[in-house]
Design goal:
GO terms for molecular function: hydrolase activity. With about 280 residues, the protein is an alpha/beta fold. Helix content is about 35%, strand content about 20%. The protein has one domain: Rossmann fold (3-Layer(aba) Sandwich).
Length: about 280
């Protein structure tokens, strides 16, 4: 499928590719990193619940340069420069399953990605990476997960409520608008489903037990959106999971402890470079 150049991100221009999803076509914003490293492993970056290509800033470039990797960064539908969520579109409890089972594979197919990449996910993006690896093991070389969610905790809901209040009462909306063409699409899609009563029962622990890919799970000890039970729960269910618990670190390890995250990720990928 053809791609079109869109607005610049902090690390250069991005492109968009049309992807057919549930009988409609959405444009997905993306950016390649180090495409000239044709023989290098590919890392696909899956952003957080309010993230986008631009929200990553230069971290994917730093990681790919440190590890000699190729990278693919993209904004899921409703985020960044991708097709916004329709005003009347309400996400269901299975919204992350839809991304993992339908959108991400279709996006990779649209770009002609044939190899099994490493998935580098943050928060919601890390949960999507887990679900994709459980459903499509042949499409995943390994997982690096930052602040993943495998179940809903009280602390998560409480801080998402605080985020809602900040969006309505402070300049948070203005700040986020720098990273999204339609900031209300991004924020309310994420916020409303996480605060929906039905979502309290969301739990992917049984599904992730099927994963056999190598997993590095990273979480800050001061994460305001989840406790260490999240990554420890992954380790209990996925054999061989390596944990990295970072002090003085909140929900975004790639910002709070970027050096530690990059070093651990590069070492982990190299240790598993001969697998698959």
């Amino acid at each position: 499928m053809s791609a079109s150049t869109t607005a610049p991100s902090p690390t250069g221009y991005t492109e968009r590719v049309p992807v057919v999803w549930r009988d409609r076509t959405v444009q997905i914003e993306y950016q390649w990193i180090g495409p000239e490293r044709s023989d290098a492993p590919l890392a696909v970056f899956l952003h957080e619940g309010l993230g986008s290509v631009a929200m990553w800033k230069d971290f994917p470039h730093q990681l790919c340069d440190a590890g000699g990797l190729r990278g693919l960064v993209f904004s899921r539908p409703a985020y960044g420069r991708s097709t916004p969520r329709a005003a009347d579109e309400v996400w269901g409890v299975d919204f992350m399953h839809q991304q993992a089972h339908e959108v991400v594979p279709a996006f990779l197919d649209a770009l002609g990605v044939k190899e099994a990449p490493w998935l580098f996910g943050h928060s919601d993006g890390a949960s999507i990476a887990l679900l994709l690896a459980a459903r499509w093991p042949q499409r995943v070389r390994g997982l690096v997960l930052m602040a993943p969610h495998i179940l809903v905790e009280d602390v998560t809901v409480q801080n998402i409520e605080r985020a809602r209040d900040a969006y309505e009462q402070t300049d948070l909306r203005h700040k986020l608008a720098r990273y999204h063409d339609d900031v209300d699409s991004a924020f309310w899609g994420w916020n409303r489903i996480w605060l929906a009563p039905a979502f309290r029962a969301w739990n992917i622990e049984p599904e992730i037990a099927q994963i056999r890919a190598p997993v590095l799970a990273i979480q800050g000890c001061d994460d305001e959106y989840g406790t260490l039970a999240q990554i420890r729960g992954i380790a209990q269910r996925v054999p061989g999971t390596r944990l990295l618990e970072l002090p003085d670190c909140a929900h975004s390890p790639h910002r709070d402890q970027s050096g530690a995250v990059i070093a651990a990720t590069v070492a982990f990928m190299k240790a598993h470079s001969t697998q698959r």
